[in-house]
Design brief:
Strand order of the largest sheet: 6-7-8-3-9-10
Number of domains: 1
Strand content: 15-25%
Bound molecules: adenosine-5'-triphosphate, magnesium ion
Radius of gyration: 17 Å
Shape: globular
Helix content: 25-40%
Largest sheet: 6 strands, mixed
Order of helices and strands: EEEHEEHEHHHEHEHEEHH
């Protein structure tokens, strides 16, 4: 996916200003940045929830910057939103099944649910529970599972660690690393820069709507400027 000169505004000054991001197949890319930097705006725009006011988004050689959310889902981007947003009244199983809605081709839903339960074994006992009764970490697993059910070309993750215990965050990030190792392409936003840089291949640093730095996660891990700005306080 090629994001070129992306501009996003909410009717006033741009909150994302000429951002360029490349996500190659099989990569885990992180977008880092403080509160209000524009991270969620980018992911929501990619998912078609908010229209870009400038620039282009190329997914598999097709421009999707003017496509609506359901078209984009069919074309292969799935968003795991900030705050998880599971359907609280629906069972875990039904939440997962909803994730498969956008798929064009027939698939074995039970087999895919089973593969998600192998990935997140804690969900197995809770499969028929209302998702709203689960812990925050378990709900995050449901939200990721729902995204995976769409078999997306790129899974977009917005702050998966938000509000979770360190143990749960560790478990989730192990799952993200495993997904990457299996060849799933991921675009991850997290304020916990240290954590994101541990699993990412490359990262982009966003500051008030602009990319101020980018490079391999390895290089950014040792970057003194970044350390001062993000890696101290936000460390996992
Ligand atoms: N629906 C909206 N209407 C108006 N302004 C918005 C809207 N959503 C976000 N903004 C503004 O856009 C800017 C970027 O917000 P965004 O949520 O993308 O940042 P973020 O990097 O995800 O922050 P956080 O780390 O707090 O989640 C902020 O100044 C925010 O106030
Ligand atoms: Mg956000």
């Amino acid at each position: 996916m090629f994001i070129k000169d992306l501009v996003i505004d909410y009717g006033a000054a741009p909150v994302v200003d000429k951002v360029n991001i490349v996500v190659n197949p099989g990569e885990l890319i992180a977008i880092l940045g403080a509160n209000g930097a524009g991270k969620s705006s980018i992911l929501q725009c990619l998912a078609g929830l908010h229209r870009a006011s400038g620039g282009s988004i190329l997914l598999d050689n097709e421009n999707i910057e003017h496509a609506d959310a359901s078209t984009i889902a069919t074309q292969g981007l799935a968003l795991v939103p900030e705050g998880r947003q599971v359907f609280a009244q629906l069972s875990v199983r039904d939440n997962l099944l909803l994730g498969g809605y956008s798929r064009k081709e027939a698939f074995d839903a039970e087999a895919e649910i089973d593969s998600i339960l192998r990935r997140f074994p804690r969900l197995r006992d809770r499969i028929d529970s209302a998702a709203g009764l689960l812990s925050g970490g378990e709900q995050q697993m449901v939200a990721i599972g729902r995204g995976l059910m769409a078999k997306p070309k790129i899974l977009l993750l917005d702050e998966p660690s938000l509000g979770l215990s360190p143990a749960m965050i560790g478990e989730l990030y192990d799952a993200l690393a495993a997904l990457r190792d299996e060849g799933v392409t991921l675009l991850l936003v997290d304020q916990m820069a240290n954590l994101a840089l541990q699993v990412a291949d490359r990262a982009y640093v966003l500051e008030t709507g602009r990319i101020v730095k980018s490079g391999s996660a390895e290089a950014l891990r040792g970057d003194p400027e970044l350390e001062a700005a993000y890696l101290g306080g936000a460390a996992a």
